Amino acid sequence: MTEKTIYELSQPGRKGFTFPASDVPSSPLPKGFEREAVNLPELSELDVIRHFTNLSHLNHSVDGGFYPLGSCTMKYNPKINEVASRLPGFSQTHPLQPITSVQGNLYLMYQLQEWIQEISGFHKVSLTPAAGAHGELVGALIIKKYHEDNNETQRVKILIPDSAHGTNPATSSMSGFVVVPLPSDERGNVDLDALKSNCDETLAGLMLTNPNTLGLFDENVVEVIEMVHTAGGLVYGDGANLNALLGILRPGDVGFDIMHFNLHKTFSTPHGGGGPGSGPVGVSESLAEYLPGPIVTILDEGDEENPPFYGLYMPEKSIGRMKAFFGHFGVLVKAFTYIAMHGPDGLRDIGVKAVLNANYLMEKVKKDYFLPYDRICMHEFVVEGTWKDVPSVHALDISKRLIDYGFHPPTNYFPLIVHEALMVEPTETESKQTLDAFAAAMKAIAQEARENPELLTKAPHTAPIRRTDEVKAARDLVLCCWTPEIL
Ligand SMILES: *Cc1c(COP(=O)(O)O)cnc(C)c1O
Asked: Is residue 53 domain-resident?
């Protein structure tokens, strides 16, 4: 990396700001806190702005280029969301304020609960979980408590399809369940025979992602849910892929009992880099009293002169609190803004266009890459990033080469059931021109693989850094290269 650190750019005596002459007596700083003692870099305002602006350009971003990272729904985040969440009435309130002074905030949360209920078909929603995985943990804990209340503690088994996101088995296992993987059939649906053989009195529930992480809608979803219900189990829906269904299908209507919604995916909030996200959970009527709280409710309906008065409650058999206060309120404001801006027809349009974009791109890409489940996809699709005639090239090499073409790589090596998986999710916010450019890059890379495979195996060639040890990069974070000498 050629970028200099802000210390290397420092020039003695250069200043970013000059205070006006003091009109009060000066008082010395405590020893160790003087400018000389803390060794701060000396730069002009322009130096600082250029330094950080240039640094920010070293990373790929949704605002900078196409980001087809499958399952993450890296759609464009409208800037109006940011404006709304920074309004002082939202950003300057404190969670310990009396509810009489935050009625606007409570109204926003109440309305968002109602909208998510309407969009998803669930009876009641709690906004508090911090992300999708956190919502799954809520779901698993609700399933546990529900069976305990029915004196069915022998129900210890949660079924999870082999295409599932790793957080599904992780949260089930954290909640004390035994995780049983379910194979997929040749069309990418849950294998019904395997499901049937697991439908017994030890079944606590099934965690199902639909559309699943192959980007495929499970064609037997109604039958699958019925089988689990008949066996006495509950069905948790991993709602990370709700984007594809917006305005078209309400998961609550087809029998899912519990589901989380990744507001930072479907309802557009910046994500990546660890948060903050938001993973509200919806449940059917019979599970409403198990939700985590607090939940916003109307305490007084009001009348023609007085607006409704909002308050909070904890459901009777609640699994408890999952988060301090009310969850990530700033994210809730962004999701509210996004839903309000689009309205019902706009939301449906999002679902339709996300599916159209994915199918358009899939048809182009499958000419050069093997598509193991060749049927109409939903919002994303998975191809193999490898060819029999070029054994030296792997999915990772194709991804790294895409960086040279200015694109963020697709998701690699997930789902696990596709060999050398490349999972592409274009989202509805990309234009035909962008999709065509990406397809052209994929085609060019397939040709390069035959002509000069080293171009791929040594890629990226143009990025600020070359290949990193990704495990080490995630485990050994260096977030600060400087500590004040006085500490
Ligand atoms: C993103 C994702 C999750 C986890 O959601 P987070 O908000 O990242 O915790 C779970 N399942 C699927 C299918 C996902 O894509």
From this structure: no
